[in-house]
Design a protein that fits this description.
mainly alpha, single chain
């Protein structure tokens, strides 16, 4: 007999990462995983954290574009008819920053694992 805590619904992965700034398009974590050719060993949570870092950094890099377009009356990048090239550049920047964040985390974890085996002199 199942307990009260058992659930019959599977845990759903969060696919869309919404930027802090609604000007920029949402990032599909599934698409990001495919684009970066990530192995299954990279967890969804780890990818999401890397993507959040990447979205913030890309938003900072593209802040001047956002300011200029908002001054022209655009509330979201998608409101602009010819937003394709800028959207593409933004997504590529997110991809690049996500890879960088994932690589940095791997280096830190490997370094910590190496330090864990050392004895500390007291």
């Amino acid at each position: 007999m199942p307990s009260k805590n058992d659930t019959t619904e599977p845990i759903r992965r969060r696919d869309l990462l919404v930027s802090d700034d609604p000007f920029w398009p949402s990032i599909s974590l599934l698409r990001l995983r495919r684009q970066l050719l990530l192995p299954p060993s990279v967890s969804d949570a780890r990818l999401e954290v890397a993507a959040q870092i990447a979205v913030r950094k890309a938003g900072g890099e593209f802040a001047q574009w956002r300011r200029v377009l908002r001054a022209r009356g655009y509330k979201r990048l998608q409101d602009m008819k010819a937003h394709g090239p800028l959207s593409c550049c933004y997504v590529h920047a997110v991809e690049a920053y996500a890879i960088k964040a994932l690589q940095y985390n791997v280096r830190v974890i490997e370094r910590l694992r190496g330090l864990a085996g050392r004895q500390v002199d007291e």
